Amino acid sequence: MIRSALHAVSLVTSAPADVETDLVILPFVEGEQFLQSVPGLSDATAGAVDRALTSQEIQGKPYELFLTPVLTGWRAARVALIGAGRASDLNLERIRRVATAAALAARQRHVARIAFVHRLPAQPQAVQLDATDAVQAITEGLMLAAFSGDRYKSQDRGGPAPEQMLVVASGGAAALERAVERGRILGESSNLARDLCNEPANILTPSVFAERGAAIAREAGLTVEILDEDEIARLHMGLL
After folding, report:
1. pTM of the prediction?
2. Per-residue pLDDT reduced to its tens digit, 172-185
């Protein structure tokens, strides 16, 4: 699999306050007692998160975003809250989309380093999701946000992809590491397919398409055989 160092995702098992990054991203659901489950955040932001929650500037609705500087106590420069919707609606697809939306918002702000925190809402109606599945979905979402379709434009309209993307989670490190790796591979594979689909026909000719596909397969350890027109005709494949 072709892998870009700029689009790698790593696991961190530290507490959110101890993660050194430019932006810590915290998802939360509608109606949860958010500050009670994130110790120290109120003091770290000098009450900015408290005020935003009290005024309902952010309510936890899907994909709404609130950013504020971190003033003390945490190692991150800023913190972002992103809505995940109702606890009863929370599933892996929603988590994946929330991670993508948060990472795209970071791209638009040219944030170089981000850390997305996996956390489950402390609500009885919340859907119980396996932590490894959730971490995989988060990783996929972050990878999908790193894709750019502006290759042939004068500038990347979405901003550059973050140089560092972290998933912050607690639990069995080995299982979570495997989940991050699965998510990276799936996200990267999706981006490769999107990249090929977006290529114009005068660039991605059949021979170039075959060469790119072969390069991807060989890097994954596969053996590749490319059939030319004569061989396709000989096999009566009906593709010409």
Report:
1. 0.87
2. 899 999 999 999 99
